[in-house]
Amino acid sequence: MKKYWWQEIVMYQIYPRSFQDSNNDGIGDLQGIISRLDYLQKLGIGGIWLSPVYQSPNDDNGYDISDYEAIMSEFGTMADMEKLIAEADKRDIKIIMDLVVNHTSDEHQWFIEARQSKTSEYRDFYVWRDAQENGELPNDLQSIFSGNAWEWDEVAGQYYLHFFSKKQPDLNWENAKLRQKIYEMMNFWIDKGIGGFRMDVIDMISKVPDQKIIGNGPHLHDYLKEMHHATFGDKDLLTVGETWGATPEIAKQYSNPAHHELSMIFQFEHVGLDEIPGKSKWDLRPLQISELKQVFSKWQTELGDEGWNSLFWNNHDLPRIVSRWGNDGDYRVESAKMLAILLHMMKGTPYIYQGEEIGMTNRPISTISEVNDIESINMYQERLAQGFEASDIIHSINAKGRDNARTPMQWDASNDAGFSKAEPWLPVNPNYQTINVAAALADDQSIFYTYQRLIQLRKKHDLIKFGDFELINETEAEVFAYRRTYQGEKWLIVSNFSEQSNFFTFDGKVDKLIIANMTDLSLDLNHKLLRPYEAFVVKLRG
Ligand code: TEU
Ligand code: CA
Fold first, then answer.
1. What is the pLDDT of residues 463-498, one digit of tens each?
2. Are the beta carbons of 339 and 313 closer than 8 angstroms?
3. Is 242 considered catalytic here?
4. Which of 50, 30, 31 is nearest to 353 (CA)?
5. 3-state secondary structure string, 389-416?
6. Angstrom distance (rounded) from CA 356 to CA 336
7. How confident is the model at residue 1 (pLDDT cuts 50, 70, 90)?
8. Taking residues 311-336, what's their average pLDDT?
9. What is the distance between the alpha carbons of residues 289 and 319, in angstroms, rounded to a whole number?
């Protein structure tokens, strides 16, 4: 199989609002990112997924776009954006733009014109329905951000569809003119020299609201093929689709190069394993390590050479992994390194979310007034009305709320973590005086250097990028162990996914140690006692 550049790098996600403020207004910005490129180069990443920087009224922090070809004034100018692309390029870092085309802002010119009149050429860019004869909503479709997915529009005299907030009306991809407008916009960005697109909820673009089909709709893959040909098809870009409902079979449809759709997808099967099945992300249950092993193993083995996956623990929608499935108390450093080693030795393109590389943690809140994120706020109000206890809802928000990932990046121990000299838009995690980039860089045993080493290893070893995967020792419940094999070479990856010690048994001989999260490692694997969160990688003999 042909090798692609995006199979050989590690990506890094930046949430611009929270990365680095350069002009002290409390909001991260493009010049701030430029000033930190040397840091990212030192880490070793090959691309940045930039969460949206387009003009937006910020109902959903930039995921509600009012102009795709303008930069949000709080973040800077188009000249700053061009500078960012050029400066990143000098450091061999590509900029992957967030493409949010399932919906726009209600303040986008298309929507403003569409609602004015049924004869507007933009009317059909969105999804409109009359009320039912008895005056009720078109149907009972629900918004992912709580409440009905239909909103009555006085000006339009009809309901419009919004699967996210009321200020994020869904686009109607059945309209060919709309699709052309989107492709033109994508080409505008491609011409600026970007490295590709991360496609927001792309599996929702082909919807059939009257049949309640939301994801994986009938024309999804036709649209993606059309997009591919109209935009990035001959450009060697990285394209990654956010696809919540993907199975390995669906992943092959998207990412088999022969299908001319996307480079890879984000699938979320592992992310849902601490939720009560059939319920929402807010309904919690403990993670079963055995299930985590099965889900990863399935994705590692079933794609084969017919598709490509991404690897991630975190993004701007998810809680911090060290707080979620590691231990952000006594074993913060050990568990963060364990999680990193476990994930980065798998096949796929890894994505690091800002701050993950220094083991940033969730920020606990105690009242709803401390919450910024619209998803959590809407859910709080909805559940309160349904009779839930406020304290239970706050418990769910602390576990799963999106603000956890969005607190400002912790650069150093100075006021507000060196993020800004003004009050940040979202408070800094109070632990910034110990957990910060300056401290991590000064400590050669820090989590940062584990990530740096993992990135170097991936660059150097095709075994990590392309080797076969095999889950081993499945009966050792809390030990997540697997073997990678490539052209006769074999590596063993072992991690103790627990704050208890556990035994690991393996009869094979070790050639050499590749990486570990603890020192004093005994390489006798015959009946090895693993310390809490211990993880290591060895090359096997013969
Ligand atoms: O997320 C899609 C999405 O479905 C999430 O809202 C998800 O349900 C939830 O956050 C679970 O953690 C994308 C973006 O990543 C998110 O930030 C946007 O709010 C959303 O689309 C709308 O654009
Ligand atoms: Ca700023």
1. 999 999 999 998 999 999 999 999 999 999 999 999
2. yes
3. yes
4. 50
5. CHHHHHHHHHHHCCHHHHCCCCCCCCHH
6. 8
7. low
8. 98
9. 18
CA–CA dist 243, 254 (Å, integer):
10
Q: Please check the confidence at residue 301 and state whether its pLDDT lies above 70.
A: yes
Going 103 to 105 to 110 to 116, the CA torsion angle's sign is positive
> Of 387, 404, 397, 324, nearest to 367 (Cα)?
397
Give Cα 368 to chain centroid, integer Å. Answer: 25
Gap between the Cα atoms of 315 and 349, Å rounded: 14
Per the CB < 8 A criterion, the answer to whether 20 and 411 are in contact is: yes
Is the pLDDT assigned to residue 445 strictly greater than 90?
yes
Going by their DSSP bridges, the two strands 479-486 and 528-530 should be labelled as unpaired
Residue 523 is predicted with a pLDDT of: 85
**Sign of the CA dihedral 253, 257, 263, 266?**
positive
Owner of token pair 């493009």: 30
Q: Give pLDDT, residue 522.
A: 84
The structure tokens listed for 278 are: 């059939």
* Spatial contact of 270 and 281, defined as CB atoms under 8 Å apart: no
Q: Which of 13, 68, 144 to mutate to test the pocket of ligand 1 (most atoms within 8 A of CB)?
A: 144
pTM: 0.98
Which has the closest alpha carbon to 99: 307, 265, 240, 309? 240
| Ligand number nearest to the C-alpha of 318 | 1
Could you tell me the two tokens for 150? 């239909």
User: What tokens were used for 484?
Assistant: 């990678």
Strands (E), 141-280: 150-153, 158-161, 196-199, 238-242, 264-266
Q: Which atom of ligand 1 is nearest to the CA of 144?
A: 8
Counting from 1 in the atom list of ligand 1, the atom nearest the Cα of 164 is 22
Catalytic residue among 29, 80, 153, 200: 200
Q: In what order do the strands lie in the sheet with 349-353?
A: 264-266, 238-242, 196-199, 94-99, 47-50, 11-14, 349-353, 310-311
Encoding tokens for residue 337?
Answer: 């390194």
Q: Which of 80, 242, 334, 375 is catalytic?
A: 242
The strand pairing partners of 496, in sequence order, are 479
Calpha distance 98→238 (Å, rounded): 12
279 Cβ contact partners less than 8 Å away, ≥ 6 residues apart: none
Residue 16 CA: which ligand is closest? 2
Per residue in 18-68, pLDDT tens?
A: 999 999 999 999 999 999 999 999 999 999 999 999 999 999 999 999 999
Contact 14, 408 (CB under 8 A): no
Closest by alpha carbon to 426, among 389, 376, 379?
376
Nearest to 159 by CA among 210, 205, 120: 210
Tokens 């090959």 belong to: 46
CA distances from 487 to 223, 299, 467, 515 (A): 38, 21, 8, 21
